[in-house]
């Protein structure tokens, strides 16, 4: 699939979203270059610390090495995201840095001009998250889904996230219980989706589909033309039913946790 929005633009919108999600964490750090970025929460879980390489080139490879060194100096595990061209160009560097190859992840894009009609689910209410208690419940659903210690996720995504102007977290609730969550970050007509998770006990009941369908329709009604996400294999079929298509398979590598270096 091709997109009329440049890959570099999509990845930078995702970077801005991560900064908004992580900037209030006690251990937050961000380093940006033209073709790379590091966004770290400082928590000891790879899903909460990211490095991205968007384009190949000597400067990008040098920045990749610096970013990995920064994570290791802090003893942090991290995920490294590379576009296909960047992964091919950085292959020898990735091996020499001692990173661990993980499963590729599909970057998926959806045009919002022909969305399927959202499917309601019985008794389900879909609302923007506006208060700290609902946010914490949603963060716990996300943490449970991805094997993240709840205390770490809560330190990263506390109530200050609700004041981020470009971010809107959503919850699907039933009888006041949060069953699924998603967060959006909007940049003009481009919508980034993150933190998508359904509580394990409530999966395969149409809840995730109802939540995402509602969120996409809401943003389409206010001028968004494209939505994108870094998807999991488990969610891929759901996203395809909603109109998403794979733009490319991102290479994912892991920076293992190390003992922090103290000079």
Describe the structure.
The chain is built from 8 helices and 12 strands. It has helices at residues 7-22, 58-73, 84-89, 91-96, 132-146, 150-156, 207-221, 236-241; strands spanning 29-32, 36-40, 49-53, 78-82, 100-101, 105-111, 125-128, 167-174, 177-187, 190-198, 226-230, 245-255. Strand 8 and strand 9 (177-187) form a beta hairpin. The longest helix is centred in the first third of the chain and has 16 residues, at 7-22.
Structural class call reads alpha+beta
Number of strands: 12
- Give the low-pLDDT segments: none
Order of helices and strands: HEEEHEHHEEEHHEEEHEHE
- How far is the first residue's CA from the last residue's CA? 48 Å
Describe the global form: globular
How large, in whole angstroms, is the Cα Rg? 18 Å
Question: Considering DSSP H and I runs of 4 or more, what fraction of the residues is helical?
Answer: 25-40%
The quaternary structure here is single chain
